[in-house]
Queue: 4 jobs
Job 1
Amino acid sequence: MSIEDVQALRLQGKNREAWTALTALTGSASANATAATADKPEYAYERSILNYYVGIPKEDALRDFMISYSRFKNIDYNNLLFYVIPFTFSYTTLPVKGIPDFLPTSTSILPLSNKILLNVRYVNYRIQENGSYLMSEGGVLTNAHLRTRNFFLFTDPSFSTFSTPEEILPSVEPFHQTHIHGIEDIRLFTKGAKVYFSGTTCEYSHNGSIQEIQGTYDIDAKKLTELIPMHSPTNSHVEKNWIPLNRAYDDESRFIYSWYPLQIGRIIHGHFHLEYESQTPYFFRHVRGSSALVYYENFLYTMVHCVIETCPRKYYHMLVKLDMANTIVSYTVPYYFVKNHIEYTLGIYIADSQLTCIASQNDCDPIIVRIPMNSLSWI
């Protein structure tokens, strides 16, 4: 038997026979044969397909897929969707309600001295079955402006009691007239005792395109102040998912700009200056965002995501562990939360061996998700 025979059997739909032939070649009946010195790119490619058809346990097949993808760089990324499994978790609904035309969605988390600050994004759009967006105006879905509003509230470290949400508004008028209104995907962080934010916007960007900004999150005044538009280091027309490092260890305006390679830079007068770069696994070419970093047991953690462009899109999430020198120590396999579709999280909180995050479902219906850290599969 040769690898060509394996491929021929698979293409004929004889998957069990192909699997038997493949294991005879590799000398292993295990899905996770990537550690074997005899493993080859063509073997890994066949496993990335056959693992699904012959019923290899999904978690084993997923680990094999992730390791082989980065090692051999020849596997179809879209096959990931056949292996991703849900987090092991419990959840409750975030107790916030919609308001006329607007629904709550992505929520940022920031621990303060004795409470936790949440920023809840409210949106007027509804994602349709074909992936398009329609906006609610007066209760009618139209092609009106896409609008975002932001509300803050407080909770306790167990996420069991909540204050009444209050709206927080930009302190100045928009810099540009655009179709997309407001500041999206706010991430909260601190510098000393002061709360700051970063977010995505057209109205307040430096050029009227989708770009990142940062500013002060003034809870007492209920205002977003001292807005600083941030310029793309690559002159990209769209910038999203810059991750602030400040929250983790009081750093001065540094952001993770990309994950492949890992690029970290300082913001000076609104411009990104690269200060650190390191290589990351090949799979990280698909990784974006998502959450600000948290410090837990001498390491930094952040939730990231990758997307498969089906209709609707599928979002998968990985927890990444870094040391204090910004080196990736390990990362989990990708997971989804409740449904294998559009799910998003902006903030995480880790305490007492439990990961807590707030995930939106199809850009609405945010839930509080509690995940045991020991349930995660790490690479």
Note: The longest helix spans residues 58-72.
Job 2
Amino acid sequence: MNEEFNMFVITRTKNNLEMEVDKKLKELLTAREEVTKAYMKYTNWGNISRESEWDIERDGRAIEELKSKDSLTWAIFWFGPLALTWIIFTKSMVIIGIIGIPFFMQLIKALKNSSAISKHEESTRQTRIAIKNSEKEMEKALLIHKDLTAAQNSLEEDYAKKLRSFFLDTFDKNENQVVDELETPDVFLLLLEKHQEKMIAFEKSEGKNYVQLFIQVHERLSLKRQALNRTLIEILKSKDLMDEEVNHKSFAGLLRNEIHAYNVLLASSISMISALISDNRILFYKIYQTFDKLNVFNSNFENESLQELRSINQNLHKVLNRIDELNYSITSELQVLTEATERSTESIQTHLEQVNSTLSFNTLLAGINTYQLYKLNRKKIV
């Protein structure tokens, strides 16, 4: 177990790489805000331009309507000559009243219509000027938006590189797509193979197939290892890490939680085998009953989680959150077992050394306890 990694997991002091990622994320979020503002400005000018065009259409319809009602031409060319002729020959005030008054009323109405048409035409002219100004502002806003978008894209590429470096440096230094924490040999299987005869003898005395149960535990550990490695691969491919809420911090936190859950399960599993080898029936059955209650012997959940990660077709963050929530109850229960196992660390370490394992059980327990303490303190702070 890499003790330095455990210390990194619980430290609150950010390393330089994480600080760089934080800085790039802030720059990216700021750039996104600027792009949004520029686009809104462009949209607003576009709306102004469209509204101005609608004003021109309304003025046009009003002009057409006024022209259709304009009786000036009709009054002058048709009604006017007739009225003048009658007035000249008859000199009758009655005829002047009958013919002249409507003529002058139509003339006044036509003049009013003409004035209204002129106002609408002037309004149209001013609106066309406003449209041209709006179009110029739109062009400016569009150029600014393009420049800011290019800057944003550049920041996203830079952030993605920093992000990849951060996750690789934190979880996969040799870039072999295996979480550094999981690169130790399969110690659980080594213990099973070395002490198989004793387990068979234990089975006969108890009348129960414990070897099969141990194999099922190993299957769960194996699937969990695969899921962790797959999670890291999917995180490195993900495009969901560029948000104020969903970013490198939240993904790193979820991955660390999963590593912690794996370590807790591994420690309990190793303790269970060691207890059987040492004839510590009390510890063995305490762990066994806890495993049975938590359905640890069933690997359906791990299979489903791994399948989801392999054929992910939804938001990665949501998938990891779901896995994290389901693991929480198991981890909380198993965490209690570490207190019982701490009294047997010496014999457990002896059994690990017998299979040439480089795993330090004391370091494993220390990492589990320290991370749990870190989580509790963090909740108090929040």
Note: The chain has two domains: 36-152, 172-381.
Job 3
Amino acid sequence: MKATVLRGLHVVVPVLLIVQGPWAAAAGGESPRARMPEPILLDSTTDIDSDEAGELEIDLVGTGSRHGSAATIEAEWRATRQLGLSLQVETTREPDEKDLDATAAVAWALYHEYALDLHLQAFARLRFPLAFEQQTAELDPADPALPISAGIQCAIRRGLVTVRSELAAEAGGSGAHRLSVRGAAALLMGGPLGFAGIEFLGDLARSSPCTLAAEASLDITRGQLPLRLGVAVPWRLQSPHDVSVIAGVIVELN
């Protein structure tokens, strides 16, 4: 994986493989709905609007930037109609240092209202080792800086417009500010070819807590193989020269 560096611009290129097995049972025999757009930076553990037990996703991510490089593998499993589980293993590398960490996450669906397309879930994440990860924080602006986080996520869709949000508390170390609270919001405009929108992330455990990102995802189908191509451009508001470009390819195998 190669990274291009140009006066503070670093390129991050993740590649994701999502596998949804044929064992994913239809919920109550309902007809398939269009999947709710999912922000590129904001992670919801498993699809927040799903109630299909057995859904499995495998994500493979490679990252390169001026801060270092990383490789990640993540498995997401909808264990029941309400319970979602994920496990992520990541290795990060800087010129003089290598790190290996793992993150386990659990999500519990609190509310589904499909007539309104409104969804609410609680979640918790735990990363090992239990320490502040400055390296991980620099590589990925979406990762919580502290190893323990828990909170609420909400999503609602009206026509072509989807709004996603998160509010969480962080613990397990000393953040950059006295109050370690994380909030995020995404406004996405969907369509038949994908979606485009903006995300805002605020993490008070970081020294530069505010990140704004423009993003777009394009749905492409090749025969029976659906493809999604996504790109996000995060910008740390307190560091005007620290701009990232994150591009991803998502392949779904049904």
Note: The radius of gyration is 18 Å.
Job 4
Amino acid sequence: MLSLQSKAPKRHIVWKKWNDPSTQIKQQLQNHMRTQLLQHLNTNEYQDDDEKDSVYEHNFAKQYEMPTPIEVTCELLKFNFWVGHTNFNITKPIVKILDSTDGVETLELVSRYRFRVGIGTAFNEGVVKNNIASSITSYFNHNKINEKTHNFTA
């Protein structure tokens, strides 16, 4: 019986979508605010439904009217981030491959085996990730590199 490890390629990248924790917190806060507003509207008595609707619309519009300049800037800084977990060292040649791949907008080295890339909106994330993996595989195959050290073999 073959183990799962023997079926895995010698060198590979496991991709995980990176979600900005501040975005999650902001969404939770907005949901909480909506819940509080609805509870407030349901507990207060209004003379008729039209009055209740107008109060709700006013409060909702007031809270979610126009984004502030900071919110606009935050939207512009949102990236489609992916974390690549590798089973090989990320060396200077690997960084060069990552940085030169079409569609990679940002690159951040997290550790010896981990990096984060921001993929441009105009690019297909699956294609970009496959191109990264193919380029790195080609690099290892072409240069006959030792998988652990990246040293050239004789």
Note: Residues 21-74 form one domain.
